[in-house]
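Q: Could you write out the predicted structure for this multi-component system? I'm mainly interested in how the pieces pack against one another.
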Amino acid sequence: DTAVSQTPKYLVTQMGNDKSIKCEQNLGHDTMYWYKQDSKKFLKIMFSYNNKELIINETVPNRFSPKSPDKAHLNLHINSLELGDSAVYFCASSQAGQGSYEQYFGPGTRLTVT
Amino acid sequence: AQSVSQHNHHVILSEAASLELGCNYSYGGTVNLFWYVQYPGQHLQLLLKYFSGDPLVKGIKGFEAEFIKSKFSFNLRKPSVQWSDTAEYFCAVRSYSSASKIIFGSGTRLSIRP
């Protein structure tokens, strides 16, 4: 059973296109996250939702729009893709108020913009 | 602002050597501390975490870490590394005042020579 899953695993697209990445968790967690990992492996948080409510919104271009239809799903839509958006995007989840807020990560989506 | 520093960017060791990876954070309040590992092409997995209590924390695969509050450090250790430990290692910190937000260090790439 996959705890945190993401689709697609790989995404190759051209500049200017709009694309979406989907994330689902079956851990019963109430908090979900999107991270961007660049080519140097630096991991930066982008967004976090708690029970469908946006709680973390880091300095991210407004071309990126997260959506959480329910607490088990967090999708990321990217408009007008740019070369600099190429990265691996990780989804994660945790349970607020439960101990140390340990985060569980999905397998990642490698986005390549050409 | 909170930050996490991993001073070793790339560490190269031979099998059976001992390992210590440094991690320092900048936050004076109560924190949770984590070490995550990312094997080549895979997602992040939790190695160990410090929540409270004994500052010496044991994790999976023979790893341990020691929380030294006075030094704001949480160094990762393993007495004898194996080739399969080749991976990227990330230290991360969550402060009690930031709810679910976890800050990651820039990562340390560990290469083990067989």
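A: Regarding packing and overall arrangement: Chain A has a mean pLDDT of 91.
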